[in-house]
Amino acid sequence: MKKKVVLVHGYNKNQKDMLVLKENLEELGYDGILVDLPLTFKRIKYCTSIFEKKVDQIIYNLCENEKISLVGHSTGGLVIRNFLSNIKYRDKIDRCVLIATPNQGSQLANIASKLSNTFTNVFKTLDSLHPDNVKDLGLRSLDPIEIGAIAGDKSNLILGKLLPEGNDGRVQVSSVKYEGLKDFIVVSHGHKDIHYNFKTAELVDSFLKKGKFEITL
Known about the structure:
Low-confidence stretches: none
Oligomer: single chain
Domain DUF676: 5-92
Strand order of the largest sheet: 2-1-3-4-5-6
CATH topology: Rossmann fold
Number of domains: 1
Organism: Selenihalanaerobacter shriftii
InterPro entries: AB_hydrolase_fold, DUF676_lipase-like
Strand content: 15-25%
Keywords: Hydrolase
GO molecular function: hydrolase activity
Shape: globular
């Protein structure tokens, strides 16, 4: 039986943005499941409530003792962490991977809020990414679920020049890392292509199988 992996897209995207990663993981032997969330005009907590309903249906159709893994890109990773705060899913969720996720919040969202409150009032998902609002999500580690994170350090986007530290053009490397991760790795990719690279899929595969990121030469 192929292991089921639910793939969660990021801010201002839809499930199509995770299609390449789905295909790459399926080449590695997984059953990828895509979901669509309103991660543009709605807050992360609201999107998490929708995600819970989708996962409930997936879990309902699982075989006995079968578990699913979760993989999220960017803001999708915060949805996963917010979702994992619900203890009722503890026995049905296996290892999870966050790719380029602003776990400490987005400094670009912070800059946007200073420039215009109107902008963040309209794009509520962006407002949710403000470092203070990420803290308000009350994210916590849920034993025994292991989480790994992959960050990119190729700042190949214009907005990346506004960030004072190493980043992938959108998210600082330091924001991806947080206490409680089982493993963490930095790869040389930008925010918009990190989840399209086959090497990233191989890293996801490594963590889901072994609980650590191993790079094969």
